[in-house]
Amino acid sequence: MSTIRDVAKLAQVSTATVSRVINNDSTYKMTEATKNRVWEAVRALNYKMNSRANSVSPTAIKTNVKIGCVISVTKDKYNDPYFMSILSGVEARLQSKGYQLAFVRSSAELEDTAILHSVFQEQVAGLILMESLEAKTYEYIRKQVPCIVGIDTRRPEIDNVGYDHYEVATNAVQYLIEKGHTRIGFVGGNGVKNSIKDSLRYKGYYATMHAAGLPVHDEWVINCQWDEVLCMEKIAELCLLKEKPTALFVASDLMAIAALSSLYANGVSVPKEMAVIGLSNIEMARYSNPPLTTLEIPMKEVGMLAVDVLLNRMSGDDLLPRKLILPTTLIERNST
């Protein structure tokens, strides 16, 4: 019968390293390559641990590693197609690597101290963070979780994966300008910041309008707080203005679809009287009335890449935090 020393010799590591790998001991970090060599040796030698009949499998061990996700939503946490698409990428990538997602929580839920402490009372090895979080909550989690990867957070001390919010706004507004529009409005929301004007997407919109010598009217800037009902109400108010914009850049497809519905209800023809461009290319964007022009964010790939970065960190990668920006693509449909 093979021994742990035989496994160590074949894998060219110490017996202590073999023990840490098969017992999922993360006290000392090691590369994924080292772990793979150990598991290959375990399989090749049919090594049994604790005299059990079945050999230890890496998949069985990995399911004991707790990896969680915090998503950014204002209402029902499973009701936002943008974050659900990213989450599907996270889950698919983790499963392909032999891991499972232990929990999904919203930033709003974690503001409850009881929930926060309950979620992190057991050791969490890694976390995908889709929200910057309030400072107190974030600092608590940082002390509990050794490896955190953000998705479009404003936390420079951790890795971040996402898209360029400023650039995508400039591309959207420039597209509308090239279509001949000079009166362009902006629809968006604010996250942990109190003002919509802190948003990089708003800043990109404003800078592009300013560079083109076009006016930005406050009444054309709508803070919908990422709420579809509020968005429809504010678009209805916009329709009552004597001088309306002829185009809108809406910083979310879900809000853009709500805007289209409100414009239709208020007798404003799209795109004849007002063009609309969204952002993200969620599945329902192609089925809106009219189909929505948008800038596509590779949402699933964002989630998958975030997992890759997280697993590398968990395996011992100690390089400086990095920011990985994925490209966006214009999808032109009938709303413009």
Can you tell me about this structure?
By secondary structure, this protein is α/β, with parallel strands linked by helices. The protein has 13 helices and twelve strands. It has helices at residues 4-11, 15-22, 32-45, 58-62, 81-96, 107-110, 113-119, 135-144, 165-178, 200-211, 228-238, 253-265, 299-314, and strands at 67-71, 101-106, 126-129, 147-151, 159-162, 184-188, 221-223, 247-250, 275-280, 293-296, 323-325, 329-331. The strands form two sheets. The protein has a six-stranded parallel beta sheet with strand order 2-1-3-4-5-11. Strands 7-6-8-9-10-12 form a six-stranded mixed beta sheet, with helices on both faces. Strand 8 (247-250), helix 12 and strand 9 form a beta-alpha-beta unit. Helix 1 packs across helix 2 (15-22) and helix 1 (4-11) crosses helix 3 (32-45). The longest helix is centred in the N-terminal third of the chain and has 16 residues, at 81-96. The protein is elongated. The N and C termini lie far apart (71 Å). Residues 51-61 have low confidence and may be disordered.
The radius of gyration is: 24 Å
Main β-sheet, in a few words?
A: 6 strands, parallel
In terms of per-residue confidence, which ranges show pLDDT below 50 for 5 or more consecutive residues?
51-61
Range of strand content:
15-25%
Mean pLDDT: 89
For the largest sheet, list the strands in their spatial order.
2-1-3-4-5-11
Layout of SSEs?
Layout (H helix, E strand, L loop, with lengths): L3 H8 L3 H8 L9 H14 L12 H5 L4 E5 L9 H16 L4 E6 H4 L2 H7 L6 E4 L5 H10 L2 E5 L7 E4 L2 H14 L5 E5 L11 H12 L9 E3 L4 H11 L8 E4 L2 H13 L9 E6 L12 E4 L2 H16 L8 E3 L3 E3 L5
Parallel strand pairs: 1-2, 1-3, 3-4, 4-5, 5-11, 6-7, 6-8, 8-9, 9-10
Antiparallel strand pairs: 10-12
